Amino acid sequence: LQPDAGGIGTSLLFSAPESWLVGEHSRKGFDGKWLGQTFGWAYAGDSFVAIAAGQLAALAAVSRGPAGPFEVSVGFLAAGALIALLKWKENVAPSDTKEGPTISEAVKVMVSDRKIMLVGAVQALFEGAMYIFVLQWPPSLIAVVNGSVPFGKVFSCFMASCLLGSTLFSALAKRGAQVEAMTALMLVSAAASMGVATVGGSSLAAVLAAFFVFEACVGMYFPSIGTIRSKHLPDSHRSVIVNLFGVPLNLIVVSVFLSIKKLGVSGALACSTVALSLAAVSSILLYFTVNREDGGD
Fold this sequence. Notes:
- The structure is a single chain.
- This protein has helices at about 1-15, 15-25, 35-65, 70-85, 105-110, 115-145, 150-175, 180-200, 205-230, 240-260, 260-295.
- By secondary structure, the protein is mainly alpha-helical.
């Protein structure tokens, strides 16, 4: 039951809040240019919370053992549910029928638009690489650190790097930078940093520097992809399409971890590097596709 509930919760977490925000932003008639900055501020706030969560989880683990952080998280989950219940107004995208969008309809919408397919490729490849990293950074550090690794403090440093990335996104968006261009440059940087972590795995300085750069890219990624999805995914099928993007993402992660004994840490990071490189290529193609269509208009 727990894995099923976790899967459902993750799908909702990565689709429902964003879909609600985009729909509410449109319903209230706000200028579309503010949406990117809103995503930037939201993920900057998320980084602050995550930094504090890392320290709180470390204290809970010391006090209550390995289950301590999970016990503390229950209260925060309940608070979030209560806020959504009391403060969120229901919004439904316009549709020609009373029924919600079906998976087959969402697939037809996806395959009919090259930009949506490229957005899906970026999301699946980057987030697949990110989840591989999430499970491999602890053994990567254990392999190069003499003694115990202060995981709570390292996690907080990662979240500080995420904060830097989301703040950078907000600053660039405020200056009018094109989100597709920012995303392409960020993905190239992410691929390069993961490549450094892969080949420099025996050096603590190289691994930490590469991981910090990658986490900054993660901080920039989430407001970037949220803004891109708000531009290129139709409101009527947004939630379904976002969850469909999760299918190849999960295939990437599962495939790597079914082979983890053969790959090892360096092999897994190499797979992450390849996925990030392909995500960068997809993002560059999206950039040229968007600019070509805008030029044609």
